[in-house]
Amino acid sequence: MNVHLRIGDNRTFSLKQAVLLYQEGSRAFATLHEVKIRPDQAPYLCAGQSVTTGFLETLAKGLGASMGAEVLPEHVLARTPELIAWWSRAQPRLMFFGDGNADAKKLNGRMYSQPALVFMIHGCELFVRALTEDCRPAGDTHLKNAPYWNTDSTGRVCLGSMRIPKEVRVGSLSSWEKAYFASEFTHPSGAVRLTTHSGGFLGLWSNLAGRKHFPVKFLADSKQTLQEFIEREGEG
Fold first, then answer.
1. CA 119/CA 76 separation, integer angstroms
2. CB 48 within 8 A of CB 31
3. Rounded distance, CA 162 to CA 176, Å?
4. Vertex 127: Cα angle to 122 and 130 (nearest 5)
5. Residue 134, helix vs strand vs coil
6. Tens digits of per-residue pLDDT, 94-132?
7. DSSP 3-state assignment of 4?
8. Quick one: which of 235, 236, 225 has its CA closest to 77?
9. pTM for the complete prediction?
């Protein structure tokens, strides 16, 4: 019996090896086995051998986990095969609000000053936090909740109408920022305090049109440092 897997129309994969994982409590080890194919019979496994780090590296590359070398600019804060985090200076940005709320609709399509921000892509998800100072944060810098709808207590963004860039690399980070602010802020996402402003989210942005600087005193505490933000999501 021949064992093949076809993905699309151009490639056919043959069964060559198998990895067996053994576990007892928190301890585990794996063995690698050659697969023998016999005509008109079920395939069988040959004797196993210990899995090496070299094999795991080759397997990771084959599964698309390899990452090409990139020169990291000053605004990139962390980079692994699973995530990339960077910060963006305080600046004015065009914002769009969903028209499901009459008060939000009045704010739509205007320029607003923004605080400095920390963005992170983990897997296919986008996270965002805010900074009180317009400078590169350190690992022990305390972060604030991003003052935006569609963002939950962990900083995870509900992507909604956002057109996600196809690539996750240093050269595409500005495209992720533009895509984020080109989408509509439509609704609160879970129980998260977005601002300390007495008028809440809508009160904050209603008072910001035309102002040159974002009042960071209205940012709500995330109770996280940059290190905690990156490590928690990196483990999730």
1. 10
2. yes
3. 9
4. 140
5. coil
6. 999 986 778 888 899 999 999 999 999 998 899 999 999
7. strand
8. 225
9. 0.72
